[in-house]
Specification:
There is one protein chain. This protein has two domains: 61 residues, no CATH class; 150 residues, Tetratricopeptide repeat domain (Serine Threonine Protein Phosphatase 5, Tetratricopeptide repeat, Alpha Horseshoe). It contains nine helices and two strands. The radius of gyration is 42 Å and the shape is rod-shaped.
């Protein structure tokens, strides 16, 4: 006969190779006849005593190996998921300064906090700076990404002053949306007649459109109000001084060229 557990030739009551019992066994609880390799009674479920030590050791090793493999596999899955996910990307709202050719220069700052914790005006100003930073760097995709956010923040302002209208107009100019920019210039001049920002926006929009007559008209109006407006010492003029002075110098060059041309004629 052969051992039902290891298949080795066997004789007597136990296998000489693995120690499995070769005799007919009965359940100690219900006396049902059991097969030599049974571990539990197939009738009442009672555990079978007398399992060979070699068989128990083999089973324990098998369960240990299976447990170790499961732990290794689970650890590998967790590691791959954590590595692929990584920390969620957060938009950098830092203001690193913008070109004085289009908007006022600002000093660099560190990484900004979550804009959801800011006031509506702080959120708008930070998004405005982000758009201007990207525009200066020639990053059009970032400009397109943050422009709707910035204009949405402008719409949510509790109160709107000239400076906020000017910032919104500059954002529109950056993406070539000249109609809303000119409308904001009209609103600024209606609410604050003679304000230099209104003429600055009109002139910039005219330049983008290739409207030389519109640009000259805006420059002329700008110069006619410049002295009185600067004497008022408005805070927004001090904050945007590079832009204001650059537009003034350009307007004066245009005026000088026109006077020279008239003199020659």
């Amino acid at each position: 006969m052969t051992c039902p557990n290891c298949g080795a030739p066997a004789a007597g009551n136990f296998c000489s190779g693995c120690g499995t019992s070769l005799t007919t066994r009965a359940c100690s609880a219900c006396r049902t006849e059991l097969s030599p390799q049974a571990r539990f009674c197939h009738r009442c479920g009672h555990p079978v005593s007398g399992i060979a030590p070699a068989q128990r050791a083999s089973e324990r090793r098998a369960w240990m190996v299976a447990g170790i493999l499961c732990a290794v596999l689970l650890g590998g899955i967790v590691y791959r998921v954590a590595r692929s996910a990584g920390p969620p990307p957060a938009p950098d709202m830092a203001n690193t300064g913008v070109s004085s050719a289009t908007v006022p220069g600002t000093a660099p700052t560190g990484r900004a906090p979550d804009i959801s914790s800011m006031s509506p005006r702080e959120r708008f100003d930070r998004l405005f700076n982000r758009v201007m930073q990207a525009a200066e760097a020639g990053d059009s995709s970032t400009v397109e990404q943050f422009t709707p956010m910035a204009l949405g923040a402008y719409q949510q302002l509790d109160s709107v002053d000239v400076d906020a209208r000017y910032h919104a107009a500059v954002i529109h100019l950056q993406v070539g949306d000249l109609g809303p920019a000119k409308a904001l210039a009209d609103t600024i001049l209606r609410e604050s007649p003679g304000h230099l920002f209104g003429y600055l926006i009109r002139g910039t929009a005219a330049r983008f459109q290739g409207d030389s007559a519109g640009l000259k008209a805006a420059q002329k109006e700008f110069l006619s109000h410049y002295q009185a407006q600067m004497a008022a010492k408005r805070v927004e003029y001090l904050e945007h001084q590079p832009v204001v002075e650059e537009f003034r110098q350009e307007a004066e060059r245009t005026e000088k060229t026109e006077r020279s041309g008239k003199t020659i004629k």
